[in-house]
Amino acid sequence: MGAVRRRSDEEPERAVAGVIERVIAEVPAPRSHEVANPDAAALRIARDAARRAALVSGSLALPGGPLGLLTLLPDLYLIWNTQRQMVADIFAVYGRTAELSRTHMLYCLFRHAASQALRDIVVRSGQRFVVQQLGSRTLSSLAGRVGSALSRRVAGSAASRWIPVAGAAAVSAYAYWDTLQVAKTAQRLLAQAPDPPRDAVAFAERLR
User: Fold this and answer.
1) How do the domains of the chain map onto residue ranges?
2) Helices (H), 94-135
3) 200 phi and psi, to 5 degrees?
4) Confidence class of residue 86 from pLDDT cuts 50, 70 and 90?
5) For the chain, how are helix, strand and coil distributed in percent, rounded to 5?
6) Per-residue pLDDT tens for 45-81?
7) Which of 59, 100, 108, 160 is positioned for an S-S bond with 167, CB 3.0–4.6 A?
């Protein structure tokens, strides 16, 4: 019984980790470009992405019961994919597209929700914090840790789908908030010009 229960507990974690790996498999090309006022542009990009994520999440949450449960993983993928594009676009308006790596993307998407799982990505270098550049195997391992950390959220989202209207409103609101948190993390990475120029890992100490 114990082994069966462990396998059952691990299944959501593996499923979520698989979705995360798909999302960070590549960094998308930006749909924006460098502008004179990147802060304002980034805010518009974040709000537009948050509205799209909320709409997608709320729509997918409308079916109740088992049908709603079936939409859960596609929901996560579509939301994270929207957020992934948002991060690429935010980096672009600051003229920092070349710096954006898969490691940065993983950190931006999940730092606010799974900070403990990602704490080893960031190291101190003098007065700065640096995002380490990681290989595919390490990123896969981290995706598993993030999946484990997010498993409770997945369980909560699944439960909300048994109450169609209230559940749709709740997951829609959470998707909006969650997307804005991702945007904030991306902007914190970009809060200070890299030193030396175009260094892919330097970012402001106020990240913490």
Assistant:
1) 2-23+34-207
2) 102-110
3) -80, -5
4) very high
5) 70, 5, 25
6) 999 999 999 988 876 655 555 444 455 778 888 999 9
7) 160
Say if strands 202-203 and 122-125 run parallel, antiparallel, or are unpaired.
unpaired
Residue 5 confidence (pLDDT) = 42
CA distance 53 to 49: 6
Taking the CB of residue 80, how many other CB atoms lie within 10 A of it? 22
Q: Cα dihedral sign for 65, 6, 113, 78?
A: negative
Q: For helices 102-110 and 2-23, give the axis angle rounded to 10 degrees.
A: 120
Structure tokens at 180: 């804005």
Render pLDDT for 71-81 as a digit per residue (tens, 0 to 9).
577 888 899 99
Distance CA 82, CA 23 (A): 10
